[in-house]
Write a structure and sequence with these properties.
Strand content: under 5%
Number of strands: 2
Order of helices and strands: HHHHHHHHHHHHHEE
Distance between the termini: 28 Å
Shape: globular
Number of helices: 13
Structural class: mainly alpha
Length: 359
C-alpha cells in the first residue's frame, strides 16, 4: 500500500479559522445590552447539548474491551493528567514578568484537559502506528477527563486565584456530567439516528462551540479584559506553548522507548499523550470560569489546538513514510468492539470505538 503523499503544506484547521472569525465578530459586534443574557443562556444550552451528544456517541462498552493494553493506556493517561499538569504548574515562574495571570490561568487549564479523539487516531494512522490502541487510549482519556479535569482545576487553579469553588464543581455536574450520562443512558435508542445524521451533528457540534466562544469573547470585550494583554505577550504565549508541546513530544517518545514499548505503540503514546481537546475544553471553561475573563482563559487552548495539528501532521507524515520505506506498513484487523470509522487526515479510514467526533 502506498504511503501518504508528502506535502509541504501545513494543515490549517477550518474550524480554527471559523473560531478566529467568531472572535473577530465579538470584537467588532459584542453581544451587549438585552442581547447579552440571550447569548449567555444560549451558550449554556449549547454546552449541555454538546455533552449529551458526546455521551450518546461514545461507546463505553467497546472502549472497555481495549483494556487488554492497560499498560499502554496508563502511560497515555499519566502523560495527559500527570506530566502536562506538572509542566503547567512549572510555567508559573513566567508570571507576571512574561505572562499576565489570566493567560497563565488559561495555559494551566489547557494542561489539565483530556486528549483529543479524532486527530489522535488520525495521526497515529498516518504514522502507521497501532490505530486500534489509539482509539481506546483517546477514548479513555475523554472519559477520565470529564471527572479528572474539574478536580485538577479545583486543586491547581483554585490555588492561583481562579476562584474555582464547590459551586463551580456542582456546575460541572449539572451542565456537563448529567447531560453526558443522559446521552449514555439513551445511546441505544438514538445512536442509529445519530449515525445516519453524522454530518449534521458535526455542524451542531461546531456551531455550539462557536456560539460559546462568541458569548465568552463578547463578555471579555465588554468587560475591558483585552486591554490587559498586548501583542508581545501573545507572542510570548505562542513561544511558551511551542516549547511545552516540544517537551511533551520528546518526553513521550523517550518514555515509550525507556519502557521497551514497540515502535507502533510508541506512536500511540506520542500522539495521544500530546493532544489537548478543544471541544471538551471550551465547554468546561464556560462552567469553571464564568464572566468576562473567560475569553482570555480559552485563548491559550485555541492557539495550542492549531499548533498541535501543524506539528503532529509533520511528525505523522515523516514517520509514516519511514514505516513504508522500512516495509512496516501494516495494520491489524479491527477488534470485535471497533465499529464505525473516522477518516484520517491522510484520507485513510480508521477503525473507531467512538461514534462521531470528540476533537
Amino acid at each position: 500500500m502506498p504511503g501518504p503523499t508528502p506535502t509541504r503544506r501545513l494543515p490549517v484547521d477550518p474550524f480554527v479559522t471559523a473560531l478566529l472569525c467568531v472572535v473577530g465578530l465579538a470584537l467588532l459586534l459584542p453581544a451587549g445590552g438585552a442581547a447579552a443574557p440571550v447569548a449567555s443562556d444560549a451558550a449554556v444550552g449549547a454546552v449541555g447539548l454538546l455533552f449529551f451528544l458526546y455521551g450518546a456517541r461514545l461507546s463505553t462498552r467497546e472502549a472497555m474491551e481495549g483494556l487488554r493494553q492497560w499498560r499502554l493506556h496508563g502511560v497515555v493517561l499519566a502523560i495527559t493528567f500527570g506530566l502536562f499538569p506538572l509542566l503547567g504548574v512549572a510555567c508559573r515562574i513566567f508570571v507576571p514578568t512574561l505572562l499576565p495571570q489570566q493567560l497563565y490561568q488559561g495555559l494551566l487549564f489547557l494542561c489539565l484537559l483530556p486528549s483529543t479523539v479524532q486527530s489522535s487516531i488520525a495521526f497515529t494512522s498516518i504514522a502507521r502506528g497501532n490505530t486500534a490502541a489509539a482509539v481506546c487510549s483517546a477514548t479513555f482519556s475523554s472519559l477520565f477527563g470529564i471527572v479528572l479535569t474539574p478536580l485538577l482545576a479545583a486543586l491547581l487553579l483554585g490555588t492561583h486565584g481562579a476562584g474555582i469553588t464547590s459551586r463551580s464543581l456542582l456546575g460541572i455536574v449539572e451542565q456537563l456530567l448529567l447531560p453526558f450520562l443522559a446521552g449514555q443512558l439513551l445511546r441505544r435508542r438514538i445512536i442509529a439516528a445519530l449515525t445516519r445524521h453524522r454530518r449534521i451533528l458535526g455542524l451542531v457540534d461546531r456551531g455550539s462551540i462557536l456560539l460559546v466562544v462568541y458569548s465568552a469573547f463578547s463578555e471579555a470585550v465588554l468587560g475591558g479584559v483585552w486591554r490587559q494583554v498586548s501583542l508581545p505577550r501573545l507572542g510570548i504565549l505562542a513561544v511558551l506553548e511551542a516549547a511545552l508541546l516540544a517537551l511533551v513530544l520528546v518526553s513521550s517518545a523517550l518514555i515509550g522507548r525507556r519502557l521497551g514499548v514497540d515502535q507502533r505503540d510508541r506512536k500511540v503514546i506520542v500522539f495521544c499523550g500530546s493532544k489537548k481537546s478543544l471541544a471538551t475544553g471550551i465547554p468546561m471553561a464556560t462552567v469553571l470560569f464564568p464572566g468576562p475573563a473567560l475569553g482570555l482563559t480559552v485563548l491559550p487552548l485555541m492557539l495550542f489546538h492549531q499548533l498541535q495539528l501543524m506539528v503532529c501532521a509533520v511528525l505523522a507524515r515523516r514517520w509514516g513514510a519511514e514505516a513504508v520505506a522500512a516495509g512496516e506498513d501494516h495494520e491489524p484487523a479491527p477488534g470485535r468492539g471497533q465499529t464505525g470509522h473516522l477518516t484520517a487526515l491522510g484520507g485513510r479510514p480508521v477503525a473507531s470505538c467512538a461514534h462521531g467526533e470528540l476533537r
